[in-house]
Amino acid sequence: MKNTVAILGAGIVGVSCALELQGRGFDVTLLDRTSPGREASYGNAGVLARSSLVPFNNPGLWASLPKLLKNTSASFRHDPAFIARNLPWALGFLSRARASAFEETATALDALIRLSGEAHRRLLVEAGVAHRLRETGWVFLYRSEEAFAGTRLSRETYERFGVATQALDAHELAELEPSLKPIFPRALWIKDAASVDSPGRVVEAYAQLFIARGGRIRQALVDKIERSQADAWRIVEEGGTVHEASRVVLALGPWTREFAKKALGLHVPMAFERGYHMHYGAAGGASLRRPIYDTGGGYVLSPMEQGLRLSTGVQLTARDAPRNLVQLELAERAAREAFPLDQRLEAEPWLGSRPTLPDSRPIIGECTGHAGLWLAFGHQHIGFSTGPGTAALLGAMMAGEPCAFDPAPFRASRFQL
Ligand SMILES: Cc1cc2nc3c(=O)[nH]c(=O)nc-3n(C[C@H](O)[C@H](O)[C@H](O)COP(=O)(O)OP(=O)(O)OC[C@H]3O[C@@H](n4cnc5c(N)ncnc54)[C@H](O)[C@@H]3O)c2cc1C
């Protein structure tokens, strides 16, 4: 019992934790109601970018807030009733859009992203899927000079943190991505970035590696967890099967809030930044060499194994609220202005949630007042990139070893759960 760990959730975060803890000699069981990497870790844009250290709630948010609140853009929609029900989250999120909080978060995320980049590159090789990685960066596109000028804070932040970028004019952009239509006078090429052509397949390959190294995965919905004795936890599956483990890791992504409330009475301050995706063909042999982010159009277009994946911006609402396809339609219209997209390749768009805490940092570490309960969730827009670094931090803490950097900004104790 002493070294047994049950990890709840087999998205990129749970699977990465499983591999890390297994490598440290723990006896690990991974539980998920579905197969690994089928939820947010499947549907994301597949970008691993050092530039993701700038969270949505940065000081530049105030200038764009009046426009965003009109609820008409493709990049951000919100449900006022959801915000009213989650007012402490919304106020907490906005209160972090000030210089000092931004600095703390950017510094913390930078360390996590850098650690994760190394760990991902190692895992991609070990899992036999290094061919899925493209070291070609990603490109932010601007539809006007003013839009580019408005990103000064981000560009200064990239420079301060040593993120390699290159500003491009229309001509240079046409050389970099010849299939784009000439509607962008400016662009910023984030060179310190990579992407994969199928995040879901990457997570599956990591899960297979965990199994090949002797790990166990159970496909089961976990109904509850409870302490069984002073130093053990009971994990109860739907249907009644019970396991015991000395430690539990909660890595349920956007389901963590509901599960932690029901099973443990914890109040996780999480909101859901939902996003849709759809795959498209490309007309006339057009192609992209790297993901693009059309900042005015409010979408990301990533070349994937299945086709070109168009992913939308944020829909801030309840995790299970009915679908609203307006954002995807607007994004598709904008993307057709920028690139010769062909037909949709699926009947139904994919929908998933980015799990976001008020300070845009995940919680990584042991839960205050619940010995043996470990937390790894809240990775907002960057969980696919930062799963492996999260695992490295959590593993070091669980083993009582020094971390690669100070984990304090990620501690659970910064919130009253
Ligand atoms: C449109 C979009 C684009 C994105 N683009 C990027 C990007 O380019 N780069 C990037 O780094 N990040 C991106 N993200 C964010 C990233 O996808 C998430 O942060 C990340 O996938 C979260 O991983 P996770 O393991 O925490 O959660 P998930 O992948 O959601 O995994 C949680 C798991 O818990 C399981 N589960 C839930 N409840 C139970 C239960 N009771 N019992 C058993 N199992 C349960 C689920 O089945 C699921 O497998 C994007 C997100 C979206 C929505």
Automatic annotation (TrEMBL):
It is an enzyme of class 1 (oxidoreductase). Residues 5-395 form the FAD dependent oxidoreductase domain. GO terms for molecular function: oxidoreductase activity. Keywords: Oxidoreductase. Its EC number is 1.-.-.-. Pfam families: DAO (PF01266). InterPro entries: FAD-dep_OxRdtase (IPR006076), FAD/NAD-bd_sf (IPR036188). SUPFAM superfamilies: FAD-linked reductases, C-terminal domain, FAD/NAD(P)-binding domain. This is FAD-dependent oxidoreductase. It comes from Variovorax robiniae.
